[in-house]
């Protein structure tokens, strides 16, 4: 019987059985195994079955097949496993001390092979059948596999027609391979247990507010970052420069959300290093020029990553402390995953023009029993990402912006997005650590997710876009900076005296009064570089007979552009929801601009002399039913 066409292309002098190829292994060999879904299952089974070899040291990044053997004492005695990343099937064995974890940046592993710091005697890999020019493809596993092929003394390749041919830097010529073992079998499949609960939806919502049309994304390992992708389907022209392609990305490819059209590095190409999914995904990438697979030292090199403008890195963590330190590879003393490429991408994003990084995690673990936002990392936990590397931390309770902020601000930002039942304790712990002022009020111990509907964007007459949202305790420094940037005359018109100090104590007093129902404050912000500056504050506070007193401060450079009118409409919308009947305001007679704002919206407003000077403006809502409807 003649051989299949794909097998006929193999050089007969180097085509052997797995047993014959593996006869070259000697006791004490250092063996590399292909990564993840690209691992050569047939070769691995044959190697384990070869009872004549002992003391074999195995190096691998993501392991699957060996999980079938790690509970066998005979296997553990013959093979020593060294993993650069701990996959889910191998965690129990790592916890039990059967596997040695190598904490190494993914971008640096190929250099360890090339320098012989980690010497490789044999590389067992899987490739596609060769083309007419003799080139096989590493397919779904280029990552560190390419470097292993280039630096191992002996290369044994399982040739499998199920292996996709990937575009990019995945090709290996037959001359480089010492032995070919033809064996047809389905690739390892990888099914993400994508989270679909309300926590994931809320995290996805906050991240979707940060990601902009045209951004280039990196999606980290794990279920949470991939589950977030379905919340980005309304975005346009996203790009992808990431280590791993998963099944969760298929809808974004098929719906043409990811086009790579605006990428600055390798435009119109998805740049990746490996692929883990099902046969549907493997067929999608097979011979598809939309994808460009490269080795890890390219894909995860921070300098390469930074060549993508607007690079947004999205990854997950196990816990984050109040100073911004991130643990992602261990649960205390128990190693859980790996360093991987999180730091590489965070630093690449930091160097990218317009780029930033996001760490996403649920606020609690163990069914809500423990907080993932902690006063200090657990004993034994590794600092995978330093407090200087993080831009944003997102939980289901909101988004904390850390970059450029001191410990005091970080504590308030992170406590604010912790689960409400842990916030007071986190603030108490921060006081004990002398991170914050002793009189600092804790964030409210209730879920403020309802405030998310109070987010608006308006176009100002001067051409800028203003973003309006509720004022949070974490805004203290920006609030104070705004106050001190105002002219003396503007401050006088708001406070009716020449207020010269806006101290921490003054701010604390204002926080004590804000409850987001009877007392509400909104801030207007404009983007300035990579951050937002406060340009306006509008507030109402409960008075008597169903009325609330309303007041505004708009930055001198923004006055006259319609911002106060917009904010007045938004405050009315909130006040109506909280059963107020109208606003009152006291306005200095010379403040004609503010009087005009009130009279324009409330043409039947009553103007009477104020008890302490100025004009008292009474504005019943029933005379002005047209509430602003602008939403994000």
Can you offer a commentary on this structure?
With 632 residues, the chain is an alpha/beta fold. It has three domains: 178 residues, Glutaconate Coenzyme A-transferase (3-Layer(aba) Sandwich); 235 residues, Acetyl-CoA hydrolase/transferase C-terminal domain (Glutaconate Coenzyme A-transferase, 3-Layer(aba) Sandwich); 171 residues, Gcn5-related N-acetyltransferase (GNAT) (Aminopeptidase, 3-Layer(aba) Sandwich). An eight-stranded mixed sheet has the order 27-28-29-30-31-32-34-33, with helices on both faces. It has a seven-stranded parallel sheet with strand order 4-3-2-1-5-7-9, with helices on both faces. It has a six-stranded mixed sheet with strand order 11-10-16-21-25-26, sandwiched between helices. Helix 15 runs antiparallel to helix 16 and helix 20 crosses helix 21.
Outline, from the CA principal axes? elongated
Q: Which residues sit in consecutive blocks of at least 5 with pLDDT less than 50?
A: 495-502, 623-632
The percent of residues in helical segments reads 25-40%
The averaged pLDDT comes out at: 88
Quantity of strands, as a count: 34
> Which structural class best describes the helix and strand composition?
alpha/beta
CATH topology of the largest domain: Glutaconate Coenzyme A-transferase
CATH level 4 superfamily of the largest domain: Acetyl-CoA hydrolase/transferase C-terminal domain
Q: What number of domains?
A: 3
CATH C-level category of the largest domain: Alpha Beta
Number of helices: 21
């Amino acid at each position: 019987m003649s051989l299949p066409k794909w097998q006929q292309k193999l050089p007969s002098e180097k085509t052997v059985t797995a047993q014959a190829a593996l006869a070259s292994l000697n006791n004490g060999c250092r063996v590399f195994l292909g990564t993840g879904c690209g691992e050569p299952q047939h070769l691995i089974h044959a190697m384990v079955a070869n009872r004549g070899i002992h003391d074999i040291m195995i190096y691998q990044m993501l392991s699957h097949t060996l999980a079938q053997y790690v509970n066998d004492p005979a296997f553990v005695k013959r093979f020593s496993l060294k993993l650069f990343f701990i996959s889910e099937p191998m965690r129990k064995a790592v916890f039990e001390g059967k596997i040695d974890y190598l904490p190494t940046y993914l971008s640096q592993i190929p250099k360890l092979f090339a320098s012989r710091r980690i010497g490789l005697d044999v590389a067992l890999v899987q490739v596609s059948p060769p083309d007419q020019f003799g080139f096989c493809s590493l397919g779904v596993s280029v990552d560190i596999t390419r470097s292993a092929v280039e630096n191992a003394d002996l290369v044994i390749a399982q040739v499998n027609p199920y292996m996709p041919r990937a575009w990019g830097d995945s090709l290996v010529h037959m001359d480089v391979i010492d032995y070919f073992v033809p064996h047809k079998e389905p690739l390892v499949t990888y099914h993400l247990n994508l989270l679909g609960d309300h926590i994931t939806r809320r995290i996805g919502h906050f991240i979707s507010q940060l990601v902009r049309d045209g951004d280039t994304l990196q999606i980290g390992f794990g279920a949470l970052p991939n589950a977030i992708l379905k919340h980005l389907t309304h975005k346009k022209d996203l790009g992808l420069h990431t280590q791993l392609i998963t099944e969760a990305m298929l809808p974004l490819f098929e719906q043409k959300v990811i086009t790579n059209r605006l990428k600055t590095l390798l435009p119109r190409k998805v740049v990746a290093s490996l692929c883990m999914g099902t046969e549907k995904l493997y067929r999608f990438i097979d011979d598809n020029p939309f994808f460009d697979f490269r080795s890890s030292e390219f894909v995860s090199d921070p300098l390469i990553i930074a060549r993508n403008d607007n690079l947004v890195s999205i990854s997950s963590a196990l816990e984050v402390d109040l100073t911004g330190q991130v643990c992602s590879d261990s649960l205390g003393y128990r190693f859980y995953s790996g360093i991987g490429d999180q730091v590489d991408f965070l630093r690449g994003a930091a160097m990218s023009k317009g780029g930033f990084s996001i760490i996403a995690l649920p606020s609690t673990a163990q069914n809500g029993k423990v907080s993932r936002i902690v006063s200090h990392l657990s004993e034994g936990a590794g600092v995978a990402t330093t407090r200087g590397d993080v831009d944003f931390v997102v939980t289901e309770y909101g988004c904390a912006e850390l970059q450029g902020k001191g410990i005091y601000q970080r504590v308030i930002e992170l406590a604010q997005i912790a689960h409400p039942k842990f916030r007071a304790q986190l603030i108490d712990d921060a006081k004990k650590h002398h991170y914050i002022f002793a009189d600092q009020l804790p964030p409210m111990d209730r879920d403020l997710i309802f405030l998310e509907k109070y987010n608006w964007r308006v176009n100002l007459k001067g051409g800028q876009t203003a973003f309006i949202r509720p004022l949070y305790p974490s805004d203290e420094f920006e609030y104070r900076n705004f106050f001190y940037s105002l002219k003396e005359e503007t401050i006088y018109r708001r406070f009716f005296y020449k207020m010269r100090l806006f101290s921490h104590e003054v701010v604390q007093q204002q926080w004590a009064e804000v409850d987001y129902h009877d007392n509400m404050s909104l801030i207007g912000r404009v983007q300035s570089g990579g951050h937002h500056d406060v340009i306006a504050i509008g507030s109402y506070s409960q008075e008597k007979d169903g009325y609330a007193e309303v007041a505004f401060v708009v930055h001198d450079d923004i006055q006259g552009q319609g911002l106060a009118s917009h904010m007045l409409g938004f405050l009315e919308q909130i006040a109506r929801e909280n059963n107020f009947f109208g606003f009152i305001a006291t306005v200095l007679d010379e403040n004609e601009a503010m009087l005009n704002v009130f009279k324009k919206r409330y043409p039947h407003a009553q103007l009477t002399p104020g008890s302490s000077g100025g004009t008292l403006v009474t504005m019943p809502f029933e005379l002005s039913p047209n509430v602003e409807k602008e939403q994000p």
